[in-house]
């Protein structure tokens, strides 16, 4: 059993695992940003649909002093 070869193999495995974890973190961050963007788009489209159904609502403000 070659100790040097075993050590190098374990070191390479550790580097590969760290790279995999780093890539997974980047993918999770991207998914989080895309989810936030999608949620914002849905909110915006809901507001636009409400405005198209009732265009007169919110157009005027009545203020009495």
Quick description:
This protein has 65 residues and is mainly α. It is 78% helix and 0% strand. It starts with a helix and ends in a 12-residue tail after the last helix.
Helix percent reads: over 70%
Output the radius of gyration.
27 Å
Uncertain segments are none
The number of helical runs is 1
Helices and strands, in order, run as H
Q: Estimate the mean pLDDT confidence.
A: 90
Outline: rod-shaped
Strand content: under 5%
Protein name: Putative motility protein
How are the SSEs ordered, and which strands pair?
Blueprint (H helix, E strand, L loop, with lengths): L2 H51 L12
Description:
The protein contains one helix and no strands. With 65 residues, the chain is mainly α. The longest helix is centred in the middle third of the chain and has 51 residues, at 3-53. Pfam families: YjfB_motility. This is Putative motility protein.
Question: Keyphrases for this structure?
Answer:
single chain, 65 residues, mainly alpha, 78% helix, Putative motility protein, rod-shaped
């Amino acid at each position: 059993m070659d100790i040097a070869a075993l050590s190098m193999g374990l070191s390479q495995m550790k580097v590969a695992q760290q790279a995999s974890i780093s890539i997974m973190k980047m993918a999770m961050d991207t998914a989080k940003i895309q989810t936030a963007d999608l949620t914002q788009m849905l909110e915006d489209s809901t507001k636009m649909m409400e405005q198209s159904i009732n265009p007169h609502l919110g157009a005027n403000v009545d203020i009495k002093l």
